[in-house]
Amino acid sequence: MNLLFFKLKEVLSSVLPIIVTVIILNFTIAPLDVSLIIRFFIGAVLIILGLAIFLCGVDIGISPIGNSFGSTIIKTNKLWIVVIAIFIVGFFVSIAEPSLRILASQVDFVTSSVISKESIVVIASIGVGTMLSLGFVRILYNIPINKVFTILYSIIFILALFTSREFLAISFDASGSTTGAMTIPFILALAHSVSAMKSDSKASEEDSFGLVGIASTGAIMTVMIMSIISKTDASTVSLEYNDPIFTSIFSPFIQQIAPTTIEVILALLPIVIIFLVFQIFSFKLSRKTIRKIVMGLVFAFIGFVLFLVGVNGGFMEMGVAIGYGVATLENKVYLVIVGFFLGFATVLAEPSVYVLIHQIEDVTSGYIKRKVVLIPLAIAVGTATALSMVRILVPGIQLWHYLLPGYVISLVMSYFVPKLFVGIAFDSGGVAAGPMTITFILAFTRGAAEAAEGANVLVDGFGMIAMVALAPLIALQILGFIFKVKSKNGGIEYSDE
Amino acid sequence: MSSFKMIDVEQICIIINFGLGSKLLQIAKNYGISNGTVLLGKGTVNNRILDFLGLSDIRKEIVLMVANKKTADQVLEKLHDEINFEKPGHGIAFTTSVRLLVGIGGYKSDNLKERRGVDDNMYDAITVIVDMGKAEYVIDAATKAGSKGGTIIKGRGSGIHETSKLFSMNIEPEKEIVLILSEKDKTEAIVSSIRKELKIDEPGKGILYIQNVNKAYGLYK
């Protein structure tokens, strides 16, 4: 059983839940157009293939680059080099992230270009770069992770007091989307490369996680600061939901190929450049390794293009259609229930979730198993989506009604949960909001917001990613708590099956 | 050291595909083995196309167990029935001798006829510990000299030639441990090939040692 086959099997089982959910919906409460369904299936095939190939590419291409880069930087033993290098890398990796660009262009569109796409992308990336180097310094100097998060989120909440409602949602969304499928493997590998060297094995295990979580707070802060300084009030324009024109099955995919290819090349570019620079200045990689890495980059490229074409061509419209269809039903409870199941199923197909889980298995030598992490994560994202639906239906509920208690709870928990799980939980927040969730669930939310009376697409539709990024923090820390209690009581044995 | 009596204890080392480690441990426990440690590693497949694509690595789990000889034999037989080491790609198992065992009391053992398994000292287990990233060279060197492949385990450590502190953290560089099973008559060639390619004789380049294998499963020529 080789790597690709193994990944295919893994991916297949993770995309199936979405397909099943959509089929069930089609035959029960939300009948869908046939050509839309055919396109959905084509999309699903592309996603499965793309995801498997992409994950192989991550394994043999992106992660090794992150690893070598991290350990080389550390060996300079000079703080300023580390800080500057990590900042630059973080900035460029983030600026190229497709999910952030998708979000930014939607914000641009919805606010009629009051907030331009470029400004959001650049501002958020500055935040990510800054926080990434800070997170790196944290690993180097063993600063406790829960304290770092407490400080960072305290700053965020102070900033939030001065931020307009619309921007509150956008800034939290930005955090979830800057850390996407290309960035996460790289950042995770970066964290792992440093912490793996530590002679304290407990610290080394713990510090392999948390960097993604810290990096994503950067985007929240800078976008908030931007909104406070510029005092822009986002005007609210409603996104028109047009019935898709069902003339062609293949053209939506074909149309996607060119723009997607460009997006993916852009996303990969910083990593390729890092690789080249690294290769020129430190000649440690063997020919075989280089060939492998290049192969990996090619895989990552092909896989990600296939994946995104599948998502954009087949899934996005389906999401909007389901959201719209379910929201127009008499019984609004359906919307919440469907939201839960879609959220649950979608996160399972999220590329970066797999990368994170792989890392968790690696770092803990298989102690924390795949299923143990996936299920709480899926429940969390399901719940987050359901709660977002409630917010659309009940205009009185504002985003901060969820976010404030949610973050307070997760911060308080971080003092009682094993540090390993604090890191994993905060990482998984950034990880859960990847390209799959963002396109499919955001489309679903948009459709629902469009159909629901009194819902505001900007305020209600956005903020969904923020919820998806929040819920895992709590769910996985609960998991950590259970682990802690279990290993105390049970003592000798831990068995999963 | 004379207080250590000669004991009949074996270390079992099993290398199987990722995800099977816990299952295997469970089976072993049912047959009287009270302990086991699972490590993650990666193995290589000999396949040109996959190698070209860079997909030749597979995730493996390495299970280490210690038991007295009879239990070990018995458990290996049982595991062999369940896992079928004979089939290609189903894993490898081998045992090496242990001189002292502390921490495990009360062996359970029955008389069981010995059957199957390649017997007595036909194989050597070669362990090579090198710096991170060098393991592939080890495998390449070994393959050149006739080895069928090897398993790479990630580790961490430092010899007397390398101690350092970066920023405020104590550093133990990452290492890779390569485990190679070789037929007795090939061992020398493999070892000298590794020594030559990796210059292991020089200080700080790594270490290599060979252990006798008492019993081996899952190896085929």
UniProtKB/TrEMBL annotation, chain A:
Q: Report the transmembrane regions from the record.
A: 12-30, 36-58, 79-100, 120-141, 148-172, 178-197, 209-229, 257-281, 293-313, 333-360, 372-393, 399-417, 429-449, 461-483
Establish whether keyword Transmembrane is in the entry.
yes
InterPro entries from the entry? UmpAB
Could you tell me the keywords of this UniProt record? Membrane, Transmembrane, Transmembrane helix
Q: In the UniProt record, does the keyword Transmembrane helix occur?
A: yes
A Pfam family (short name) is DUF1538
Protein's UniProt name: Membrane protein
**Species of the source:** Petrotoga mexicana DSM 14811
